[in-house]
Amino acid sequence: MRVSVKTKQIFAVTAIVFGAVALMGVFYLLSIAGMLVQETRTRADLLANGIFTRAAELALDGGDLREALAADAGLRSILQMSGLSQQGLYAAIVDTQGRAIAHSDSSLVGTVIPSHPDLNALVEASDAQKLRAIFTPGGLTREVRLPLMLGTTEFGTTEFGTIRVAVSTLLIRDDLETALRPAAATAAALLLASVLVATLLAQWTLRPILLIRAGLARLGRGETGVTLALPQEDEFAELGQSFNVVSARLAHEEAEGRTSRASVSRRLAALGRVSSGIAHEVKNPLNAMQIHLELLRMQVGDSPAAQEHVKVLAQQMRRLDEVVQGFLSFARPDPLALAPISLCAVLREMMPVVNAEAGKTGVEVIVECPADLPPVMGDAGQLQQAFLNLALNACQAMPAGGRLRLSARRADARNVEVVVEDTGTGIAPEHLDKIFNLYFTTKPEGSGVGLALVYRTIHLHDGDIDVQSVPGHGTTFRITLPAQA
After folding, report:
1. Architecture of the CATH domain 237-331
2. 357-408 pLDDT, tens per residue?
3. Cβ(101)–Cβ(70) under 8 Å?
4. Beta strand pairing status for 376-378 and 339-341?
5. Using one digit for the tens of pLDDT, what is the confidence trace for 260-274?
6. Phi/psi of residue 60, each to 5°?
7. Topology at the third CATH level for domain 339-482
8. How much is the pTM?
9. Are the CB atoms for 57 and 65 separated by under 8 Å?
């Protein structure tokens, strides 16, 4: 799939912005994750210290500390504060065997509370490890532990138990996603803005290239004298000057080509006048010979042998006269009257003659010519005669009926194609390369001049003609003419 330069530039700028936003997003994500883990530990530490302070006050009161911890309403309130925390799960005081002395969930008092990994280890881990722990499927439970050391003996303080404050990384993930939503919206806005900026930038930077492409397209359509007004202060100035020079050269060559074509037509006309004089000099003796031959026929009377010789001489003289007439038709072309003409109009004007010939043998005639077909620079009369010759030949090649299709269409940006297609008897393969030769014919009464005239007319119009034929299936002539610039 072809990708334009503009698309590539937009994609490149967007990719750069996306990469920068993604890189910044990763750093932002890591920093937010670290900050949330640190904030979670701080809250857990505050809660653990509050529990420790209340436990120390109860210890100073004397009595059974275990019973005091389990029954104290103030401690129970502090423990239940863990449920109010955004990341907290529970808070508890456990003895040295891990059995709950006091718990934020009173139903768990007296049960063994399972131990979980230390939250401080996660705090000390790298940002990537923190992020991996936060996004672990199902979440992980971490604890902040604070030893509860009470009493003094000759051996020092005694460990009474441990304060545990448990938090969930799943809840930390919820806080992280909440914090990332504004950042994600900002990133999306930046990407959208980058696409718009890249589009404007591409439109601005690629404008000279678009101008050059438009100029080349106009040259491809046959226009001449195309110039480009590119900025003179950048690197495209020299390219624009080179394009203008090439365009001017093409215009000059096109003008010379038209002059040359008209000159060739005039020279052929002059040569035709000379040839016409020579042909007349040949025809005059022929006419005299025909008169005297008739007189000789009258003199020989009823002699069969003499009459046969006279007949042969008369046939050969008529044949020679036809050859001279054909030569005059071929060697005496009219000068080209070049003008913009519509091929659709040319085909339409010759249809009465074509329909009359086609009606003799029941040939169906189909004409296809789009209304937006560009005009060609040519001689309407000569082109119509050329198309008419092909159409009449096609009708005569279908003595038992058939279909004749005359169509015109745009062949490419600079040419128009006319197709004459029949379903007739076709042309033998050994004759295809000779049909445009003067005097070559396969018809018993043909002159061999018609197709030669068609060939000459098409080439005088800077065109080309091609023929394809399958014996028994039909023949197709394709004529290509340059469209008007």
Report:
1. Orthogonal Bundle (1.10)
2. 999 989 999 999 998 899 998 888 889 989 999 999 999 999 999 999 999 9
3. yes
4. antiparallel
5. 555 555 554 544 444
6. -70, -20
7. Heat Shock Protein 90 (3.30.565)
8. 0.39
9. no
Question: pLDDT tens-digit profile of 309-358?
Answer: 677 677 666 666 665 665 555 555 556 778 899 999 999 999 999 999 99
pLDDT of residue 420: 94
Of 106 and 316, the structure prediction assigns the larger pLDDT to 106
As a whole number of angstroms, the distance between CA 412 and CA 400 comes to 36
- Helices 73-80 and 5-60 cross at an angle (nearest 10°) of 170
Residue recorded with tokens 């500390």:
65
Structure tokens belonging to residue 389: 């010759």
CA proximity to 29, closest of 190, 172, 167, 139: 172
Which band of pLDDT confidence, cut at 50, 70 and 90, is reported for residue 275?
A: very low
